[in-house]
Amino acid sequence: MCARGAAELALGCVDAASPEEEHTEVEAHRRLVRERARQGAEATEGALRGVFVELPDRGSDLRLGVPGSSPSRPLEDLSRRRGSADPLEADPVQQQLPVAASLGAHTERVELARRSEPRHLPRSSKRGDERRQPPRAIRVQHVPGEDRVRRVRLGLERRAPGRHRIPAIRPQPSEPEVELDERLLGIQLSELLQAVEGAVGPGGKGGPHLRLERVVLREQEGRGARIPALVEGGRTNQIPRLDVVAEAEREGQRRTPRTGFGIRGLRGRGVAVRGHDGGNDHRDGSSGRETDEKHHTTACGHGSDDSRAAAAIVRKVMAGYRELLARVKEEIEEISTIDAQALQEAPDAPLFIDVREPDEWEEGHIPGAIHITRGRLESRIEGLIPDKQRPLVVYCSVGARSAFATKALGEMGYDDVINLAGGFADWKRNGFEVTIPRVLSPEQRSRYSRHLLIPEVGEDGQQRLLDARILLVGAGGLGSPASLYLAAAGVGTLGIVDADVVDESNLQRQIVHSTDRLGEPKVLSAKRTVEALNPDVRVVPFEERLTSENIERILADGWDVIVDGADNFPTRYLVNDAAVWHGIPVVHGSIFRFEGQVTVFSPGGPCYRCLFPQPPPPELAPSCAEGGVLGVLPGIIGSLQTNEALKLVLGRGDSLSGRLLLFDALGTTLDEVTVRRNPDCPVCGDTPTITDYVDYVEFCNAPLHIDL
Amino acid sequence: MTRVRIPPTLRAEVGGVRELEANGDTVGDVLDDLVDRHPALRAQLFQNGGLASFVNVYLGGEDVRTLDALETPVEDGSTVILLPAMAGGRV
């Protein structure tokens, strides 16, 4: 019946009476994505057709023999080889084997056996109903592919009760299939699982699905050496075997296999299996007749003389949503919203994980919770919460989605995961505190998308930036890149202090201004540029020179960070003292010719006076106006300052506090020296002697007593 | 032999070079050697007989004031960085 060159399937058998516990090692659920039309088309193109044999056993086994091209291996021959390979029940498989080998190019026959119920399980009261279900046979069909991969498709078919042979099979278009191709026999177990999952995943709401439970390979002694590890404790004369087990389950009978069909002794690279599922009619018609042990023997013996044989068992799984949920809830721990809320107050409070959709999150969430949608939970959780011992409470709206999420996290190794029973809805009903997050507009999501992609920034970080208030002292060389990059980053409020107007000599480096702004106050020029760059940014201009008289008024607006780009010592000492007293971090930058310095003076750390207790005497300190500066240097130093300012706002990374960065543009070198807090510092020291603003111009111009 | 990095604000005093070599067993000796050869540096580095408060001297990235100041021993081949405060920014 089989064209030469078509897949030839080895005759095999399955004994589904093996303890079900052996088939619980691997589970996979995936949605079925097969096109029905294609099934119909393929039904006519196979070169291999199946002969279905219903065995005169208990009626729960259906066997399918597919005569191969080799006449030397009829069913009768195989019956004599019973002793050399045995069915699953003799196979105390304890482990999964990660690697399968290529199992040979030729397969002679296939036999499928299906059982409705293992022998050792108590009979269900619904058994009578099952009996009335039309029995189904298994359809085998060779599927010629464009590539060299040979496939065989197996599908369940309904048939009239009592018939022992089904010469012609009509595929039911609605039935899913399992397909294994030859490559599956030579690839990693995980890949095999994925392939089967993809073919027989859950069918949706209450839909049928197959669960792949176990893949096992066994090796015959002395043969099949490419299979590296075989059944632990298994018999050495057994054939290599590929068992694909899926379990059928019925509502109300968890973990109880209901139906199954198996392929045993599939040999050859060209084996493909598709399991058809009969929709709601997953309960196979079982007649309760005794197993035909003789036929079993016949079938099972076949592969023993070929170490490249494989066997697969596929059992059908049926679990509707409710059943699945109920089962999952049995496997996880739950906590009431009242208890969870109390936990929140406890010292070792768990972290709440919200797995709802973004629109649900935006309407409110539990305070302190982090948001990962259910769909991205597995892929993102380890990045966000590397510590798998950390106590977690998972919630959704009512506790269903989070139940699945809780189970998934448990499977990923999170030790202390609890599902919030009742979910956010119950949390709100109890009147517990709810945080309503501010959300980015679609335009903002687009504008800041590159920030949102960075885990260290993300939506939360971007909101911080939008909320941030940064004061720029000076809108010149350093203030130019700082104001531009801070604005581009979405820092919501920028204060700019500068009394100057744009001069032609500024444009060599002060890129926030432009030629058409000559004569315009720098703060207004910067405001125009910055607000044109990003309408999210509000610029507060201070068109004045920072002095002891106005600094308190300017600082009264409240600033998170000061970016110091001043050009003179009095302003730098003034900014330093005010920042120490107000507890505002200062990002310091200064430049001269080819060299620049950057550091951060944070509250509690060293201040500018710790670094430089005194400015050089004016006669010894040439100003930049005299010395000149390379145009790009303020771009570099101002950008480094901006980097520090953004990190301070985001609360990420290590700031330059305690370190002074020295950049030399000529040699392109970067040096770092340590800055230590001086306990004797007159401003930030243990016993400060300067507690109010001084005359900074006088302080900086004070004659030094130089003793040469 | 110790290499001494000269900041841009002090290069006029040493003929414009970025780095000089000097000898000495301590930071003080090294700076003395430097000042002997470039007397214009003295006012930039010393004040009241000690290191000027407006200039920092770093050895191995540490301010020598946090070590033994001018008595800090200098190993052969090390680098000393002279660093006066710079104010420039807006110009």
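The radius of gyration of chain B is 12 Å.
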